Description:
It contains 18 helices and 13 strands.
Amino acid sequence: MSDKDTKSGTPIATRQLLHTSRPIFEQGTPGRSGASLPPLDVPAIDAAKAFGALARGDGGPGLPEVSEVEVTRHYTRLSRWNYAIDIGLYPLGSCTMKYNPKVNERAARMPGFAGLHPAQPESTVEGALELMWGLERALCEIGGFARVTLQPAAGAQGELAGVMMIRAYHADKGRRPAKVLIPDSAHGTNPASCALNSMETVGLKTGADGLLHVEAVKEACAAHKDNIAAIMITNPSTLGLFEEQLGEIADVVHEAGGLVYMDGANLNALLGKVRPGEAGVDVMHINLHKTFTTPHGGGGPGSGVVGVVSKLEPYLPTPTVEKTGDKYRLEYNRPKSIGRLRSFFGNFGMFIRAYSYIRELGGPGLTLATEMAVLNANYIRARLAGSYSLAYDKPSMHEVVFTDKKLKRETGVQTLDVAKRLMDFGYHPPTIYFPLPAVTGGAGALMIEPTETETPETLDSFCDAMAAIAEEAKRDPEIAKNAPHETALRRLDETRAARNPKLRWTRE
Ligand SMILES: Cc1ncc(COP(=O)(O)O)c(C=O)c1O
């Protein structure tokens, strides 16, 4: 039997999905329910009397009233429209969508961990504290730092914590420098973290080779003499390039009285190769959810742990985990601490997964993971350099950035079209239009990060698809311009969906 409807050309599976594609708010009928509860055997309460102004009005919660089978089909249908790393290559640059080994999940689900309550007395959670302590020691070893706080819930909060510690360090010395140097290739969270700390950012232009040059840093330090709080530098940068002058740059910033913050969200390219704390970096966040295979996407949970050299140790958030003899405890008495950053101790489930990954691979395994990630990115770079323009003609680290420069000029097909067409080939699109056109010579970026977990066969299939799209664009650009064709829904109005989310959640 053909898997296509001969009349419409639409795959049968897709038609079946479209058949039931009504939003859940348009399904069901008043009074229908998926639950069968026993009759009430206690007196009913008058909500208005019991809760006063907090009582919900007569309208109820406004949820769809549907049967169990409608709910089951709704979520099953949504899951079949979804894409995940367990389905296929997820080349979303800068996000490091590597496969999360199931052994980590198994560890996180062990009843002794999963059943813990964060308010339990310390004496009953020694095992959890030992794991946190062990993870901190491993991360210190990997990054070359004196201490690591596990508290921040994500990279962005790690940055916030890092800049807060920088501010506290200067304040402790009686200074209030206000400027933070940030290259134009940085992630948007860097300037946001400065703004939240009432600091101003000074933009640094990367050179024609995509790298930050020490001259630009010297100039900025001279222009803002005695007012430099720090530099925030991402290494490898969001262009997938290694910042070769990091050591010299750190010296210049230190001489100017500032500290060096490294955005270590891309540490998966440096494991076993560079220990930033020994290369002039004072403080750095690591995204556990990127580097150490804790699941991420869809809003978390993540973990943006922060490593510091000894001079920043007094300012770490409280509590810290300490070990005395063979006992572990939480320490709250840190007079110079920036304080608590969030409820309890961090995203503990992420700690278990990261710890399990680190212990499973060990030093040599982590180094190999980095080498494979870099090799895979360079493989894609070499295979697709004939089909797409390279943003920078330099070897890649963990990710490679192409642009639509030549393709757009020759065929009119641009970055968004390529990303949409790729979905017809069964792949999640790469990150697009980041880094911004200012850093890619005005062209739309396609930022591809394969990660270390993909096989050569998968990389080849992906490259075949990308190359086929570029070839097809020369013959018939309209195919890509109107893509996707094979998905349940065609090209969406993404701006409207983002600006007018009410459309998605309101019952008519
Ligand atoms: C370079 C860089 N910095 C900061 C972040 C922010 O991390 P998060 O999304 O965990 O807040 C990311 C996220 O991927 C990143 O790639």
